[in-house]
Amino acid sequence: MHQGLSDASRRTPEPGTVGAVLRCSISLVGAFSLYHGARAIRPARSAQRLLAYLALRDVALLRSHVAGTLWPDAPDARAMGNLRSTLWRVRKLPGSLVVASGDEVALAPGVAVDVHVLGALARHIIDRPDEPAVSFADDRPAEVEALAVANDLLSDWSDDWLLVERERFRQLRLHALERLGGLLATAGRYGRAVEICLAAVSGEPLRESALRRLIEVHLAEGNRVEALRQYDAYRQLMRDELGLGPSRQIVDLLAAIAE
Predict the structure, then answer these.
(1) 112-113 and 24-27 strand pairing
(2) Do 132 and 108 belong together in one domain?
(3) Which pTM does this prediction carry?
(4) Are 118 and 112 a contacting pair, CB within 8 Å?
(5) Which domain holds residue 177?
(6) Residues 200, 174: contact at Cβ < 8 Å?
(7) Less CB within 10 Å around the terminal CB: N or C of the chain?
(8) What is the number of helices (H) and of strands (E) in the chain?
(9) Residues 6+ apart with CB under 8 A from 259
(10) Burial bucket for residue 210 (CB in 10 Å: 0-12, 13-18, 19+)
């Protein structure tokens, strides 16, 4: 159960703001990190979990909801006590990180969160099919590179509340990379297209849509041997991991080579 913050307190930057100088920033892609300006802060694990949860939800949440989610095995009174002590620790950290008002708590406005920045870029790529590919490859190379090399959210954490958000970000990132690979190939940027598609394949080796896009790029460039090599590696992986073969779609994609 939660309630939304006002528009002024949203923190999802527009694409193009990666690297902006912000007072506080939180990274959730890969491992947790917190910065106050350029200074790295290492809060206690309970503070990390609270900040990560508030950052991912990005709305004002009832204290009881946060306490029950972060300390699910504790009695209600103990969970609320844990939340109060964790909020006290967070308030002792440099910068303004949380806003607590009445029964609600939220991440403070102005705190940058990397997953929001990368998510905004990914949606921009997916939702604007007419955007020239070169604008992503050349105008925002650092952002595109960050998206290409991104890891799972908090990959070393196993909290149940994180699982859905982790999968949501993974799917969004992979769809964006596949889309961008196609845009780059259409623009004749085959080398960069292959790079982007390989990032998608590396993110999920069994994902056939990513492998199909990579093969399409190789074929568009006239590299039939590369296309066949990728197909053979994928076919072997499918057999070893799942005992299955590639779908008809990918087989038909390569049928023209054998003719």
Answers:
(1) parallel
(2) no
(3) 0.82
(4) no
(5) 128-258
(6) yes
(7) C
(8) 11, 8
(9) none
(10) buried
Tens-level pLDDT at each residue, the chain (259 residues): 333 333 333 444 444 444 444 489 999 999 999 999 889 999 999 999 999 999 999 899 999 999 999 999 999 999 999 999 999 999 999 988 999 988 999 999 989 999 999 999 899 888 876 655 556 666 777 888 888 888 999 999 999 999 999 999 999 999 999 999 998 998 898 999 999 999 999 989 999 999 999 999 999 999 999 999 999 999 999 999 998 888 888 888 887 666 5
Give the residue from 7, 96, 112 showing the smallest Cα distance to 59: 7
Strands 104-107 and 98-101: antiparallel
**Residues 217, 171 within the same domain:** yes
Contact 206, 247 (CB under 8 A): no
210 and 240 share one domain: yes
Which element (helix H / strand E) includes 111? none
Q: What is the DSSP pairing of strand 39-41 with strand 33-36?
A: antiparallel
Neighbours of 4 (CB within 10 A): 11
| 132 plus 253 within the same structural domain | yes
Tell me the C-alpha to C-alpha distance, in Å, between residue 5 and each of 51, 53, 55, 77: 16, 15, 13, 26
Report the C-alpha gap between 27 and 46 in whole angstroms. Answer: 16
Last residue of a domain, one of 69, 88, 112: 112
- Residues 24/99, Cβ–Cβ less than 8 Å: no
